[in-house]
């Protein structure tokens, strides 16, 4: 009961933080439209996941509080499947959208001189493919879900699906590790491009945007990797000691206790919000420095010399 109430609190907090991020940061993301589409997809996935889990947990709490007999807390399996399937897809979509972001930034780096002039079509295509890929992972994990057996807790990981969901979890963690490496390589590539002399304004702008986006996304991807690794590790332990649980109810209780995905959906917009504000503050400081005019002839000389050197 305490775990359910805590998860309800996390879901409500997640919805609030993601909506606040949309309100206060929608005008602060001066990135390419394709990148913005993918970033808003992450926020939308966070909100949808939180709403679905909130409905499930509120249902459980309501049944517990209003039950007269033990069987009154049981939830229809079809109800569980209808809400758990899209929630599991959201669970997978976090990593598939991250992969799409890495690919999109790779294209932006490769086409540095022309990418800014392109429309956001690639972002929409990547977002759609990410959702389809996530649905495929979720379908694989839940294709053995028993829709005839009532349960007291709705979970994607049941005694029938635990092996497949664990395999899907391994895939997600492995993909996130690869994505982290991809982001690191892209960052190094863009840093080297920044240091190389270039008089192409479009290339310079795109290079700086790439670095800003990578600095924004890398902490979020790392946070996702850490939280999901902990969650998958807990599921792996559950799979290996499943025979030690006295009943299916005890197994479901353990699964509900280790479901820490709402922690990510709460923390990720807060982390993005903080990084965006930091980026905006640094940018304002740079603009103030650039707009300040030197007052004497020596300052004018060295200011012009510095500008010529940094070109």
From TrEMBL:
Membrane-crossing residue ranges in chain numbering: 6-25, 37-62, 74-101, 122-142, 170-191, 212-234, 254-276
Membrane-topology annotation of the record: Multi-pass membrane protein
GO molecular function: olfactory receptor activity
Keywords in alphabetical order: Membrane, Transmembrane, Transmembrane helix
Cellular localization per UniProt: Membrane
InterPro entries: 7TM_GPCR_serpentine_rcpt_Srab, Nematode_rcpt-like_serp_alpha
Cited Gene3D superfamilies: Rhodopsin 7-helix transmembrane proteins
Listed GO CC annotations: membrane
UniProt similarity note: Belongs to the nematode receptor-like protein sra family.
Name of the featured protein: Serpentine Receptor, class T
Organism this protein belongs to: Haemonchus contortus (Barber pole worm)
Organism lineage string: Eukaryota, Metazoa, Ecdysozoa, Nematoda, Chromadorea
């Amino acid at each position: 009961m305490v775990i359910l109430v805590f998860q309800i609190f996390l879901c409500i907090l997640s919805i609030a933080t993601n909506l606040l991020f949309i309100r206060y940061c929608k005008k602060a993301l001066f990135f390419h439209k394709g990148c913005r589409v993918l970033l808003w997809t992450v926020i939308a996935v966070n909100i949808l996941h939180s709403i679905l889990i909130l409905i499930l947990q509120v249902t459980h709490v309501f049944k517990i509080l209003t039950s007269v007999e033990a069987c009154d807390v049981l939830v229809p399996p079809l109800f569980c499947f209808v809400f758990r399937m899209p929630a599991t897809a959201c669970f997978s979509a976090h990593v598939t959208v991250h992969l799409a972001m890495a690919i999109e930034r790779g294209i932006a780096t490769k086409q540095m001189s022309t990418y800014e002039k392109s429309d956001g079509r690639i972002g929409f295509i990547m977002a759609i493919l990410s959702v389809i890929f996530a649905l495929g992972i979720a379908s694989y994990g839940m294709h053995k879900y028993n829709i005839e057996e009532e349960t007291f807790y709705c979970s994607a990981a049941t005694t029938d699906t635990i092996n497949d969901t664990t395999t899907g979890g391994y895939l997600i963690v492995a993909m996130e590790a690869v994505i982290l490496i991809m982001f690191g390589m892209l960052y190094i590539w863009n840093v080297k491009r920044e240091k190389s002399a270039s008089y192409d304004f479009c290339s310079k702008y795109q290079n700086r945007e790439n670095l800003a986006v990578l600095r924004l996304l890398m902490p979020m991807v790392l946070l996702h990797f850490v939280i999901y690794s902990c969650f998958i590790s807990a599921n792996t332990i559950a799979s290996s000691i499943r025979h030690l649980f006295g009943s299916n109810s005890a197994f479901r209780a353990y699964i509900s206790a280790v479901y820490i995905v709402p922690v990510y959906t709460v923390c990720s917009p807060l982390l993005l919000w903080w990084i965006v504000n930091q980026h905006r503050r640094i940018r304002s400081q740079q603009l103030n420095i650039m707009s300040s005019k030197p007052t004497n002839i020596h300052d004018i000389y060295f200011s012009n010399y510095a500008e010529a050197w940094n070109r």
